Amino acid sequence: MMNSSTLKLFLSILFSSVITPQLFAQGSIEGIVIEQSEQPIEFSSITLHKASDSTMVSGVVSGANGKFELTDIPEGNYYVVVQFLGFEIKEVSNVLVGSKNTDIGKIILVPKQEVLNEVIVTAQKATVQQQLEKQVYTATNFQASQGGNAVEVLRNLPSLSVNAEGEISLRGSTSFIVLLDGKAIQGDPSVILGQLPANSIESIEILNTPSSKFDPDGKSGIINIVTKKGTTDGYYVMINAQGGLPSLRDYSNEEKPVRFGGDVTANIRHNKWNVSLSANYKRDDIAGYRDGEAETYVNGVFTTFPSTGERSYYSHSYGVRALAGYQINKTNSLETGFYAGKRSQFRKANIIYDQQRFLESTGEEINSLAYFNKNLRERKGDFVVTNLDYAHTFRNSSTIFISGLYEKTILGGPTQNTDVEPENNSQVYNDGSMEEHNPLDGVRIKTDYALPVGKKGKLEAGYQYRYLLHKGDFVYNQWDKSTDKWFVRDDLSNKIRLTRHIHAVYSQFSDELKKLSYSIGIRLEHFDRTLKDEGVENPYKLDRLNLFPSVNLQYKLPRDFMVKAGYSKRITHTTTNMMNPFPARRHSEVLEVGDPELLPEYIDAAEIGFVKDFKDNSTFINLYYRHTQNVINRVNTVYNDTILNRTFTNAGNATAFGLEGGIDLKITSWWSLFTGGNLYTYSIAGEVFDTSVDRNSVNYSVNGNTTFLIQPSLTLQLSVNYTSRTVTAQGVDSRFLIPSAVLKKVIAKGQGAISVQWQNIDMGLLETNEQRITTRGSDFYTSTNYIQEVDIIRVNVSYQLNKLAKKLKFTESEFGEKEF
Question: CA 309 to CA 420: how far, in whole Å?
Fold first, then answer.
């Protein structure tokens, strides 16, 4: 299928070839083509005809914003014909052209009802489209992700990768921010994206050098999730259900994984009202185990404690989202949203340790002990979020948008550690439980103003205030074997209170000059954070004023070539988890502690890209550079001979230089291919715990899928995601492989679909869905292979009533998700 640039060029040439040149042009005609929901229609064809004899004199194609302009038109009386596939033809008569510009305003197209109800569309949208400051990927093209969540969609994109622990990396960095329909979400990306149903996603937009109107948070940029559309006047209902077959492999876990869920979205629009409601539930367990080894060197004693055992996840989530919009009049509108949800995740790590101690000088064994550590970490989160938005359009076509959001979140959950004799679990060596209670309040208030300048220019400015209050109450209960009683350990218990205020103002200008599109902007932010530790007299404070410039350029070259360039200054703020100044017992061999004086990262990101369209195909290449000051790394030290102390530190400066690319091919009428990859060098230089760090590596990832149209309503898609070996500040992460396949059948005249997914294909041959994490210091070594479930079979069923036409912008958790 043609992509946007090729289609526009083709239609423009077609119109131009049948138009008689006008030597004495006098005026121009402009307008905008929209649906009933006032969403713009791109690629609609507009032809101009003489009123006297119906002769066509000009033609053009509408742009992405639905706007069009016909130039060099002689004075006279005309009529305009507007057409777009699936819509009724619209004719605008009595268009008078003089010496000045004629604006015929909004042209509303009405869908053809018979087309909507009867036709099964088997064509596939282009997988990727290139725009000024972003790349846009069509989510529905990645069939293996349907019925899953947003993470499963993202793992298909060229610049993204997901490791065995579910951490998402964009161009090699786990630091980025997420937008939902353009609204900034400050939560942890892995958590937010992990609960968003893939069925609700229309497209994914990647902004690596975002303009100044966006938050500058995130090392590698922004991921904007665009949800599917709702309805014109009338109703729309979409239902999805998924079930997972029993595990094909036995991992000797205490419980068998359970997988099922579903979501439903309903929308009704009538006159000035637009009301939507969505609910979802998902139970998604993953079986697995781990095989590890660890060594320490303390006071002349060498200790080794290899381990093996279960490491599985049992999780469920459910939530309700609601949206109500009211169009007061043509220039004023209100919208309010509400979201309430609950998430629980149980990570079970039942591990057998075989501990031995030796004298380093002689190798003589001192003692040995085998014990079974029963570890269960539960993470709970209750979210309530509400927002209110107001939009106004002025007479000069400028607009102002005012938005407010409030979130109340309660996070927490216990972490239990029990050491017992392997052959006799009633013989307890040690027992402890960390209780966490973390209520959070977040507020965001913003206003944005946009003023059209000239024909295509726009001046934007705005102000934003963000507030975060996060409390933490941590109590560690220890069992006393001698008295058979529980007591509170003060050295592992604490209370903290983190507050952060961020004020920001920005200004930005964008325009088009013939073949050149550009935007340039500046953003000024002031933030102050205060962390109060109950055990420390003086709070930890940080107060800074930062300037964030941005620039993006795009130039169209002959023969469907396009070149892009961009630069953006960015920041990565520290999370509460990174700053907690007390040790938390995560499992038998790890204590985790934050650094209350941790500095934010400052990033300079730049890129240049090349795009080529040819017939129904396209390809792109982006060269990028990223330099990070105060780079934050999670590192280990020795707490005692069998426990490592995990913490976060500013390890120095890091540099990434890379190349990402992709190709979208329509090989035949029944076979298409989309594949992309990311190749980059990463280096880090600095100091960790008085030890210099100077490490570098060449890393790459490849994501691709190929689709076969077996019948008009039956497709088979094969996909693969591969991430290479990657160095870290203290070690290396091994490669990671995920192959999948999906067979999809469209039913009910295109309104429903059934698909069977085979995820994490392994068959005992590929070492799929496992990754070894290794770290090393002067006095320790640890290496653990995390092996998770493979050959998972899922069945998805979906059905929709009525058509799609308007984006649903649900309220999402903005602060609390980040700390889940």
Answer: 14
Torsion sign (Cα): 193, 194, 196, 198: positive
The domain defined by 4-115 folds into: Immunoglobulin-like (2.60.40)
Tens digits of per-residue pLDDT, 87-136?
778 888 888 887 678 889 889 887 664 433 333 444 455 577 777 777 78
Nearest to 532 by CA among 497, 578, 492, 494: 497
- To 5 degrees, how large is the angle CA 406–CA 410–CA 412? 150
The answer to whether 460 touches 450, Cβ cutoff 8 Å, is yes
754 burial class (0-12, 13-18, 19+ CB within 10 angstroms)? middle
* Phi and psi at residue 818, to the nearest 5°: -65, -30
pTM assigned to the model: 0.76
Helix, strand, coil fractions of the chain, as percent rounded to 5: 5, 65, 25
Q: 221 exposed, middle or buried (CB, 10 Å; 0-12, 13-18, 19+)? A: buried
Distance between CA 631 and CA 640 in Å, rounded? 27
Q: Which helix (H) or strand (E) holds 114?
A: helix 113-118
Grouping H, G, I as helix, E, B as strand and the rest as coil, residue 122 is coil
Six-digit token string for 251:
């991992």
In the chain, which residues fall in CATH 2.40.170.20? Answer: 234-819
Helix (H/G/I), strand (E/B), else coil: 819: helix
Q: Which DSSP helix (H) or strand (E) runs through 195?
A: helix 189-195
* CA 449 to mean position of chain CA atoms: 26
In sequence order, the 6+-apart residues with CB closer than 8 A to the CB of 753 are 744, 745, 746, 747, 796, 797, 798, 799
φ, ψ for residue 819, nearest 5 deg: -100, 5
| Cα–Cα distance for residue pair 109/8, rounded to 1 Å | 19
pLDDT in tens, 759-781: 999 999 999 999 999 999 889 99
Region 234-819: CATH code: 2.40.170.20
**Token digits of residue 573:** 């703020």
Closest by CA position to 171, among listed 619, 625, 770, 565: 625
- Token look-up 């900034």 returns 184
pLDDT tens digits, residue range 598-652? 999 999 999 999 988 877 788 889 999 999 999 888 888 888 888 888 888 888 8
Query: DSSP letters of 433-464?
Result: EEEEEEEEEEEEEEEEEEEEETTTEEEEEEEE
- Tell me how far apart the alpha carbons of residues 104 and 34 are, in angstroms, rounded to a whole number: 13
What the block records as the tokens of 518 is 């550009």
Residue 257: both structure tokens together: 């994984």
Q: What are phi and psi of 577, to 5 degrees?
A: -60, -40
3-state secondary structure of 350: strand
Cα–Cα dist 72/400, whole Å = 34
Q: What six digits make up the tokens of 177?
A: 């921010």
Distance (Å, whole) CA 694 – CA 653:
10
- Phi/psi class of residue 363: alpha, beta or left (left: φ > 0; alpha: ψ in -120 to 50)? left
